[in-house]
Specification:
The chain has 451 residues and is of the alpha/beta class. Helix content is 35%, strand content 22%. It has 14 helices and 18 strands. Bound molecules: 5'-deoxyadenosine and iron/sulfur cluster (SF4).
Length: 451
């Protein structure tokens, strides 16, 4: 699908009226800067505004009353636009918003958004939420970002492993991420629909299923109690030997899901649980809804019920404002957790996301240097994790022929690729493999017996 580049964005009109002090004038400029990448252009005419913001002042009672009379005027423009099939979002920012909060909406129900001075950076998120609530989409406002938001599309239905999408969209609004805008609100398929698909795949010989979702552990579909309930239900399907799920958010990691890792035999001891950064200052600026400590507690809980669980993560270096000390906190978190595998990225400003408009962007050379250090540490951990498998006997699901004649490839419970000699007709069966060698991205071994 062709997507509009930023220059071709459909232009929308932004009306901002500023009351009061110099501070408010500055804040109005910042809000304008935040909204420009979303395609908003300033207008002096409130009648044509797609978004009208009153940046208010509370210094005197009269100033607040002026706001209410201005809101009455905007309400009439909004009604006119609604009748013409158009829309207008009305936002109240500034000190009246801070002081009176929801009281404003009670007095003037046409107001969609109230934002205190601490919330300006979340304006794109808040506007997206209003559009979601009213059923209007803003998805087209953003560049498609194949790198970060694409779910694997290839369904390897001829093989013995398959992906099943159970959830789409994201309600988390990390400030660096386009997914909540491009993919929209969280949506969960029903457990019946998912189980039907899983049964059909199992009947075709699929033995391992990976449940997919942008925020998969926030799954809340009908017919099962959360992702843990869904996993328990799918584990009972005849032929399904292994289950995995990805990608999860730490704040949606329920105690029940953690328990499932101990209780459900088919649920593999591997979890991709992105943390992004190790500094609480940065996590807060990312709007991640978890702290370093709460993340580490989850890891501790997981390891207490499933000591061998392999952990994987996503990391971003060079988020705006990241200091050497913040980056060091990410390294120390990685040392504390010890990952089996990981994905790491230099922060890249996505137009229209709040973080792109933050001050103190980190220069490219610093980002590159930090990424190198981070990856060196993660690669060493992955090598250590793979090395520790040497001498062990691991159950491997045989998937497909390898590059060498007579060689087959499968995966360990920890998602490591394993090479070994076996007949091609073993695909789909479980074998026990003695691991003899570890490489950077795979293991090699010998089949000892059929598991
Ligand atoms: N810059 C860098 N990395 C990003 N990711 C998402 N958005 C950005 C961005 N703007 C990374 C996150 C996420 C993974 C899928 O992509 O680490 O977990
Ligand atoms: Fe993006 Fe994941 Fe954050 Fe959702 S939880 S906003 S998909 S990084």
């Amino acid at each position: 699908m062709a997507c509009p580049s930023m220059n071709e964005l459909p232009s929308k009109r932004l009306f901002i009226k500023t009351f009061g002090c110099q501070m408010n004038v500055y804040d109005s400029e910042r809000m304008t800067d935040l909204l420009t990448p979303l395609g908003y252009r300033l207008t002096d005419n409130p009648a044509e505004a797609d978004l009208a913001v009153l940046n208010t002042c509370h210094i005197r009672d009269k100033a607040a009353e002026k706001v209410y009379s201005e809101l009455g005027r905007l309400r009439r423009f909004k009604d006119d636009r609604n009748q013409a099939g158009e829309s207008m979002v009305i936002a109240v920012a500034g000190c009246v918003a801070q002081a009176e909060g929801m009281e404003i909406q009670r007095r003037q129900p046409a107001v969609d958004l109230i934002l205190g001075p601490q919330a300006y950076h979340r304006l794109p998120e808040l506007i997206a939420r209003v559009h979601r609530a009213t059923g209007r989409l803003v998805a087209a406002d953003f560049e498609a970002e194949a790198k970060f938001d694409a779910l694997p599309q290839v369904r390897n239905v001829k093989g013995v492993t398959a992906f099943v999408t159970v959830q789409e969209g994201c309600d988390r609004f990390c400030t660096f991420c386009v997914v909540p805008y491009t993919r929209g609100a969280e949506f969960s398929r029903s457990a019946d629909a998912i189980e039907g698909e899983v049964r059909a795949l199992a009947a075709r010989g699929v033995r391992e299923i990976t449940l997919l979702g942008q925020n998969v552990n926030a799954w809340r579909g009908a017919g099962a109690d959360g992702l843990a309930g869904l996993v328990r239900r799918l584990a009972r399907v005849e032929g399904v030997e292994r289950l995995r799920y990805t990608t999860s958010h730490p704040a949606d990691m329920s105690e029940d899901l953690i328990a499932a890792h101990a209780e459900v035999e088919a649920l593999m001891p591997y979890l991709h649980l992105p943390v992004q950064a190790g500094s609480n200052v940065i996590l807060r600026a990312m709007n991640r809804a978890h702290t370093r400590e709460s993340y580490l507690r989850i890891i501790e809980r997981l390891r207490s019920v499933r000591p061998d669980i392999a952990l994987s993560g996503d990391f971003i270096v060079g988020f705006p404002g990241e200091t050497d000390a913040d980056f060091e906190a990410t390294l120390s978190l990685i040392r504390e957790v010890s990952y089996a595998s990981a994905f790491s990225f230099k922060y890249s400003p996505r137009p229209g996301t709040p973080a792109a408009a933050l001050p103190r962007q980190v220069d490219e050379a610093t980002k590159s240097a930090r990424l190198r250090m981070l990856q060196e540490l993660l690669n060493a951990q992955q090598a250590a994790f793979n090395g520790a498998a040497v001498g062990r006997v691991l159950p491997v699901l045989v998937e497909r022929p390898g590059r060498e004649p007579g060689q087959m490839i499968g995966r360990s419970p920890y998602l490591q690729a394993v090479h070994f000699d076996a007949a091609a007709d073993r695909a789909g069966s479980m074998v026990s493999v003695t691991i003899e060698a570890a490489h950077a991205n795979s293991l090699a071994g010998r089949v000892v017996e059929s598991a």
